[in-house]
Specification:
The protein is mainly alpha-helical. The protein has one domain. Helix 1 runs antiparallel to helix 4, helix 2 packs antiparallel against helix 3 and helix 3 packs antiparallel against helix 5. The radius of gyration is 17 Å and the shape is elongated.
Length: 140
Amino acid sequence: MVLWVKALHVVAVIAWMAGMLYLPRLFVYHADAPKGSALSETFKVMERRLLKAIVNPSMILVFVTGIALAFLTGYWQAPWLQAKFVLVLGLGGLHGYFARCVRAFAADANVRPAGFYRVMNEVPTVLMVLIVILAVVKPF
């Protein structure tokens, strides 16, 4: 059973990260699109569908399977897993921020330039690298 939960966890992580990497890239282009334009409206649909159909469900699945794995494997007390969990919570917070950005773009209320989202696009990558290192190397 542990291997099935782990496989589901890995699939959910891949889906979540795909969305977390793509969503801010959409924001980069959306920030440059004129408000009310057909292009802006297209980005609104893309952002909403990505968030609702992929990013939100996969994040929930990551947390459910991750917590299950922590207890099924007995690693829940391991310092590396606790550090990993803190980083995953940070990624979850970033997810919440991106959801707020989707709402701001949907209301034509975005005030951030494209450059801001270019930088934000790198944050999930940094968190992902640190999380993978902790999960694979288990340095402490």
